[in-house]
Structure formats: C-alpha cells, structure tokens
Amino acid sequence: MSRYKVSKVISAHHLSRPKQGSSLDEYEGTIRELLVNCPALPVKQVHEHLKKIGFSGGYTIVRDRVRKITCPTASPDEKHRRIVTAEKLKLWLFDLAMSKGPASTIPDEVRSIANIDRILDKARNGSKSERKRALAILARSIGFSERTTAKCLNVSRYFVNDAYCANNRDDANGPFNAPRRRPRLSEIRRLVSKSLIEILHHQPKAYGINRTSWTHQSLADAYELEHGQKISSNTVRTHLKVAGYKWKKSRRVLTSPDPEYREKVELLLRSLQSLRTDEVLFFVDELGPLQVKRYGGRSYSTKKETRTHPQKQSSRGSITLYGALSATNNQVTWLYGDAKDTTAMIDLAEILFDQYQDKSRIFITWDAASWHRSNQLIKWVDDLNATSRAAKAGPVVELLPLPHCAQFLNVIESVFSGMNRAVIHNSDYKSVVEMKTAISRHFQERNLYFTDNPSRAGKRIWEIDFFDDFDNLRSGLYRQY
Q: pTM value?
C-alpha cells in the first residue's frame, strides 16, 4: 500500500512513533560549556569543535540545537535570527573589551588570533576608531560575517574588511593606522570605464588573446591582466552600455581598384547632370548565358510543403541577353545572341543608333569587359561618328567606360535582377523560345509602365552629394528596383 494509506491508518488509531534519542544528546553539555565561555560563538566553530571530539553528524542538527539552547523562543525567521546574532555579538564584544582579567580567562578561539595582546589593548584603551578596528578584527577572526560585524559596530563593511585584512597581512604599519579613504563609487566606475575603453581601442592580440574582435569576457580578462583586478563580463557590459558602445556589424562599402576610378565616376556624373533634351544616355550590359532548365526560388508555401529542384539537370538550351537602359525615360532595348563578344555590342549600338535618329548625341556606359573596349568596337564607333558628321545627320556615339569592378554603377544590373525574380526564378520552360517570349513580355510590360509613369533610371546615381566620398559608397542605395 502507499505511504499515504499507512499514515492515514496510524492517525486513525492515534498511534505515534516513539521518540528516539539524537546523536547530539551526549554532546549537549559540551555545547553549553562552549556557549557559556563565548555566547556569540558561531555555529560553524561549535560544529568544528564537536567533530574534533568524535561527533559525526552534520551542521544542520548542530545549528538547530544551538538555536534551541541560546534562544528557545526565537522566531525561525532569518531576519530575526540575524538581529539576535548581532545583539549577542555586541554584548560579547563589550564584555571582552571591558574585561580586565588575565589572558587565561580568554576563550581559546580568541587567544589564537594574531597580535591578540595588542588587539585587546587597543580594544580597551585605544581611541574610538582603534577600538572599533580591534573589535572588528576579533569578530571576523572567530567567524562572524562582514555584514553582522559592521551592523554590530555601526561601521561600513569596507571598514571591517580593511581592518581584518591589515591584521592578516601583519605589515610593518600595523592594522591600527587610519584606514585608507575609500574612493567614491562614481569615481571608481569612471576609472574602470576609462580603462575598459582604452583596452577596447587596442587589438586583443596586444594582450595575448587569440581573437580579432573583443568579447565581454575577453575584455574582462584583459582588464585583469592590465590592472590586477578581476571584474565580471556583466560589469564590462554595463560600463560599455553606459559609455554608449554597442554591437554593430561592419558595413560593406563599394570601392574599385581602378586607378582612374574617381575620374571615370566624375565623367559619368557630369554627363548625367548635363544631359540636354536632344541627348540620351544608356546603361548597357549582358546577362547569361541562361540555361533553359528548372529553377528554384522563393514562393508562398504551406508550412509542410517544401519546393525542390534537381541539382543536376539536362539543359534544354541557353540564351544570352543584351540590354540597354535609357537613363532619362527608363526604357529597355534588348536583343538575344549566342555569345558575349564585340559583334553583339555593335549590333546593340546599331539598334540604338537607328531608334534615336532624332538625337544629337548617344552616350553608352558599360563595365570594363574586354569586348567593351576592343579595337574593333572603337574603330566601328569612330567610323560611324565620321559618317554622321560628314552627312550632318544622325547622332554621335560616345563611350563612357565604368571603372574596373564597379558594376554597382551600372543601373541595368537592377533591371536584370528584377527580371530574374519575375520570370526566371521558379520557372521550368520547355524550350529556348518559351523563355525568350517570357523575358520579352516582361520588358514590354516594363516599358509600357514607365511610358505611363515617366521616371528616370536609377536613384542615388543622380545625386552628386552621394558621391562626395568615393571610397565609402554605401552598398545597395544606388539602384531603384
């Protein structure tokens, strides 16, 4: 049956368990004798003394017995017990300090304290500060806590700790010199915060820490190594937060290794800002080759549904797309080819030349790919311009090459990105013709939209102030998707 059933039956028959003797009963006389000699003796000291004479029980049973002997009617509440302990300590220290008897009457626990004769002399005959320091040493030496001792003597815990540590060090000056002035807490915090910030501005390897960035714990370790004082990671976090420091991710900026980067960007900006009504500027680029296969991408799905696409697929063909984006009216001109070469660029330039016969000048800007700066292309542009000037008809074509590794300045990249998300991602076209049809329809709809809603291509690229610092262009703000 259960223990509950047994207890219920015993209670119903008014039975009770016979009281058994405690293993501490035979030591009760010893406990009373210890408490008579030193009424404020801590329970820990009583327990250690009993263990020396053969007691094998634990600390709790000794504590309960001492409490029963010294204060049988005391409340078990911890706060009340601390008050009672502090009052008993005060009375005991007063009796000890005022006693004029020989040293033989002093309890053994007190007689073993270092410098006991000098401490007792200061407790009886010293100044007020010296008496308190002597009594603090006595109380801490026999096991009382800083809190209880400070409350009993009406001093700070720092005062108690300073006196006790000075006596243990047994330095030449002794423990009865004037205590050191404790710095204000605000001053301590300011000094710690200043030291942490100084450490923060150095690399961790300067302090022997194998890291490239700081953590709270590594800062605490470096502070301990530098100043010999141990602090916690929570303290480090608090100081840095108050000082205004927080975790921030490094920002990627757009740069180019081109030695003529600044000159090329300034030329592009000047051309954009000075465009006349009879001039037009195009951002030109290529995309591909795009394989005709099943593509993955983001889509709305239920929690249990996961779309998949094969890693290895047989291609149904490929296409290469060439596009030109007008900077002033946001219209896209495109064609398809087989490879990225100079011939395709000439074909695209001829289409633009035929479409904009009413313009006086056509600017073409593209990246630094080899087929964009080939001798064949440059010769074709020179011949075309010579013919236009001789006939005094048709626009003049000017090339504005972009810096190396600066595709972020080519706004048509964002147009290709939007086209990819719209008609390539999650697609599964069966043929090259089907993919070309979808791409062409996307550009037609886009051109129709910007015909009804006129807008310039790009966003930040039109703002001259944005390019004041050429070496720190913020990533991702030059496009308008």
A: 0.48
